[in-house]
Structures are given as structure tokens and as C-alpha cells.
Amino acid sequence: MIHGAAERFITDSGVHFKKTLMKTITTMMNSTHAFSASYHPQTNGQMERFNATFCTQLEKYYDENEDDWDDYLQSVVYAYNTGIHATTGFVPYELAFGRRQKSSFDSSSNNFTLTQPDTFFKHLQKTRRTILK
Questions:
Q1: What predicted TM-score, i.e. pTM, was given to this entire model?
Q2: What angle do CA 13, 17, 21 make, to 5 degrees?
């Protein structure tokens, strides 16, 4: 895991989240598990929206046998993280890391010039404030 283990999982109250597997995962990761309020999907709305978008994109890739969907996970995640988000107008990867994600299609030259480190940090803070509005 690039960013470490999750501190807390927030899920709806679906029975599949109340099974032994979820308890085992949270124990192994030293995490907690919280449930969103019943009949209040806004609690978990951001994740629900992501899942809907993600599943729609994944459905475009897998074949009619539907047994190879996992072969396309990495590509779909990459596309999501490097595409402009319809709601925010920003690229998720750029919001998280403050720069464009390097791609194998990029030229080997680096066009990024950091003139003053605090300028970069201020730009990153401003972008994050904008997205949180």
C-alpha cells in the first residue's frame, strides 16, 4: 500500500460488510470500521458516486464472459486518477500530489521548474481550498 493502511473504513450497513472477512481485514490492518447511518446515503455519497463511475468504466472493458474484469482494474484506476473530474474540474492525482502523473507516453525531459519551494506549496494549498468549497 503506497499510503499505508486505512485508519478507518466507513461503509453502509450491507450484510457483506458485517461478515467475518471485514472484521479480519480491519483487525489485520489495525483499523476501525464504522457504518453510515441507515437511509442516509449522503454519509457515504462520495464513495457511492465513485463506485458508480468506476463500475460503469470497468463494464466497458471486460468481455462477455465477465471473468476477466480484474485484468482491467489498473487501467480504469489510472484513467480515473488522471482524468478531469466532472464535479470538481480537477484531476484527482494532481490534487493529491500537486503535479501531473508521469506517464510512459511523456517525453524523457522534465518541463517542471521549481523557482521557489514555498510558491509550489502555496499553489497546492490554494488548489485544495478551491476543491473543498
A1: 0.57
A2: 160
